[in-house]
Amino acid sequence: MTRPTPETLAHTARRARAAADPTLDVDQAATRTATPATPAVRPAAATPISGAGSLVRSLEALDVDVVFGIPGGAILPAYDPLYDSTVRHILVRHEQGAGHAATGYAQATGKVGVCIATSGPGATNLVTPIADAYMDSVAMVAITGQVARPSIGTDAFQEADIQGITLPITKHNFLVQNAEEIPRVLAEAFHLASSGRPGPVLVDIPKDVLQAPTTFSWPPTLDLPGYRPTLHPHGKQIREAARLMAGARRPVLYVGGGVLKAGATDGLRRLAELTGIPVVTTLMALGAFPDSHQQHLGMPGMHGTVAAVYGLQKADLIVALGARFDDRVTGKLDSFAPDAAVVHADIDPAEIGKNRHVDVPIVGDAKHVIDELIVAVTAERSTGRTADLGDWWTQLSDLRDRYPLGYDEPSDGTLSPQYVIKRLGEIVGSDAIFVAGVGQHQMWASQFISYEKPYTWLNSGGLGTMGYAVPAAMGAKVGKPDTVVWAVDGDGCFQMTNQELATCALEGIPVKIAVINNGNLGMVRQWQTLFYNERYSNTELGTHKHRIPDFVKLAEALGCVGLRCENAADVDKTIAAAMEINDAPVVIDFVVGKDAMVWPMVAAGTSNDEIMFARGVRPVFDEDDI
What we know:
globular, about 35% helix, about 625 residues, alpha/beta
């Protein structure tokens, strides 16, 4: 049976040390995500314990400092030893909140996020955050209780086949069959979640297994035959990529969230500055390359900048680093970047060539790929092979100047949501963590806040989960207690998971929430305006007309400080007032106009060539550019 090699275990240990030691340069690790190391010590003598006790001891041995969850019948045996544990348990108000909090914690810290739920509806309430973590490659371990083994398959009370339900949305999952397996299964779950391409792992444990007597010893021996992620890229592929980069006239570095997962942001900047190639960063990669950098064209895709969308569309070479050519970036796939050769580097070989033909496939960890590209490009330059990008930059700079991100002030005198978000970013600064829900406010937060540092922007990118922001902000604040954490949420998203503010108030987690309250499901309303002849079917929420709910009163009822702002003159002082409060969660109800739209926009299913700068306004390109 295949065992982890010494090289794999050493690599695992380096990652764990880098994540645990804040003084260690994270780029020295193979990935930013912490991986449970197998210590180079002999296992301690086995001690008698229950399965539940073994579970909690395993969490402690894995250096888990916090879990988010709710007890229930099937998982209850685990909560008794948890009572005396060094692991902090945060009692959420809904299992979905537990899952998103674990995700926010993982994204902010680089560690594995952990959530716990009971069987049946407790477990099924975790399905959405598990799917969310799967789409965005977040290291999360979900631990669920299950009915006792003799009852499995009998439709027992609160039984659900959560292993079967989550098979398509987990990196791996386990149904623990006996108590002796628990330490090994937990160690494997954490290793799988955090190594290679990160993702969620489910551990389902029947109640009788938790109650059974067993022994506990640590460390266990991992038993993962066949699981060996490729970290180091093939040298020939790196050299071929460098050759293409040296000869390209219109290259673009297309940067995805994998660069952040790998802790490769310093290397990315070195590579970009060495080559002079323009950079675009996806929604999941904001902060991987400074927004203010002269080589940054912005975010590509449906609501990306004109320069970024044009840059990809007209490129003759796309170097994709930890990105997956998703539909929101490519638009109509068969018309995407028709003249571009593609270098695609990803740690997950399944992503390479999945959506777009690839000329140079590179399987490997983004940090190693970028570091080796730097060496190879330097070698190319030493022979005099350097790309002349002068004309390319002239075109891109012209587009950047002519079509900057902007917005029109509402004609009816209402508060502009873009102005609110822009001022929030400017006042709060680039050291804060911003967490967004899904919709118009998410896009405005990606456009009008400047992300200068990695790991300061969290959002639900792949699944687009409404209700993500408040619990994810809670998890981020738990993981980074000394960092200011703002959730930018919509009035629709906010009403899905705002009950977790009660958790924040009672647990001493002083997050700050900016509710962009336009009285509607804003992004859906925008599509109704553009594509459904302004027939606004079931998108008005009543938070404007009836003030139901009153978000200030709701915040106060949940133990938070509630503030309201309805005009531009009060925006700065309201944000400043929230910044002064550090001993309680704060909610600001920003009452904004309902008609603001997100621009630029590439309509779903259309070509990126059809990008609209504003309603009825197509960018004008030189004929030579078309």
